[in-house]
Amino acid sequence: MRLVARVVLGVISALALTPAADKPPSGGEYIVYIGTYTRTKSKGIYAYRFQPSTGRVSLIGLAAETPNPSWLALHPSLKYLYTTNESEIKPAPGQPNTVSSFAIDRKSGALTFLNKVSAGGRGPCHVSVDRTGKTLFAANYGSGNVEAISILGDGRLGGSTAHVQHIAPLNRSGNPQSKLLPHAHCAMASPDNRFLLATDLGLDQLFSYRLDAAKGTLAPNDPPFAKVAAGAGPRHLAYHPGGKFVYVINEYASTVIAFAYQAAKGALTEIQTVSTLPRGFSRKNTGAAIQVDRSGKFLYASNRGHDSIAVFAIDPKKGTLSLVETVPSQGMMPRSFSLDPTGGYLFAANQNENSIVLFRVDAKTGRLTPAGQVLEDSPEPTCVLFVPAL
Fold first, then answer.
1. Residue range 162-190: average pLDDT?
2. What 3-state class would DSSP assign to 232?
3. How far apart are CA 127 and CA 146, in angstroms?
4. Cβ–Cβ under 8 Å, residues 305 and 334
5. DSSP single-letter state for residue 12
6. 292 vs 182, 200, 280, 336, CA distance in Å?
7. pLDDT at 22 over 90
């Protein structure tokens, strides 16, 4: 039976009644925050309460009113949430877009605004926090750069600690190739927090930077990047929990690339490229989100156009992928999705359907089955973030 969560929305921050954490807690409940685009009906970040043991989801409401919180990131302490303000509504002339910080009340789900700072570029589309919780990384799609921003002791955002600008390869005249424009789309610290990998959708490159975690600074690695097929459009990346592999989803090619990862050097070697689409599909499609489950056995990738989630089995020794199935996302444009921290459910955010569809995950096969729950109270959903509830 389809369960649709519907209640009158309210701003939780007015209530008196508050990457998921690395280890799932024993308590059993989560607050699920949903990032959105606020171009139509959405007002910002929405929140639900989720019980993995029963699959029950209940709407809390509007957790924070903020413009275009298209991507969310959680602080390791579980106390703070960070978001992009992508292409902020009517930004001041000549000013870059922003990233915002919020304090989390894990009892009620409420978010309390802390501060907002420059993203260091245009069109911030992704944020992540390093393993120490001292630095936020913002990938700016419009200006093609990655910004490192300090995180203060109280969770607020401080000043920039690093600015790395992606530049198109040079032509024979020694000038940047005019047909290639940098579009940074994702930046994430390595599991050992020694490197930062950043995808650039416009340059077809996966950049590697040496990270000084104490200072929050970035320096080009050697080699400085891994090149992918021309026109592929690397969008998002995922680290394998074993630390030996990295996976990248390509927006334009609708493929996933498996890389062998040398943790000691932060170096990447391509080992396989697989399609996210079933054979015979010829209509327009773009790859979007990617995630490896906690066991490291399965990888999931979303298709926008085919409107599906592709499920792959991961070879534990080789890191290569084998297609298990391609499952309809039950809505249009699954821009993002997320496995809950227990691994029992997958939440698919169908941006153009204004819906989030729940799937049960088979732990042995990785296969997805619709759970019968469709959440329709967070318009234009773009990101799903789980936070353990108190």
1. 86
2. coil
3. 10
4. no
5. G
6. 27, 20, 26, 13
7. no
334-345 tens-digit pLDDT: 999 999 999 999
CATH number at residue 283: 2.130.10.10
Torsion of CA 291, 293, 297, 303, to 10 degrees: -30
Domain span at residue 326? 3-168+178-388
Q: Beta strands 368-375 and 3-5: pairing type?
A: parallel
The DSSP line for 68-128 is: ----EEE-TTSSEEEEEETT-SSPPTT---EEEEEEE-TTT--EEEEEEEE-SSS-EEEEE
Q: Between these two residues, 209 and 15, which has the higher pLDDT value?
A: 209
Q: What whole-number distance in Å separates Cα of residue 195 and Cα of residue 189?
A: 6
Chain position carrying tokens 């639900």: 48
Say which residue the tokens 């967070």 belong to: 378
- 246, β-bridge pairs: 239, 259
> Is the pTM above the cut of 0.70?
yes
Per-residue confidence (pLDDT) for residue 87, from 0 to 100? 82
What's the total number of domains in the chain? 1
147 close to 153: Cβ distance less than 8 angstroms: no
pLDDT of residue 178: 64
* Residue 173 domain-assigned (yes or no): no
For residue 326, give both structure tokens.
Answer: 């391609």
Task: Please indicate, yes or no, if residue 91 is contained in any of the structural domains.
Answer: yes
Above pLDDT 90, what percent of the chain?
Answer: 87
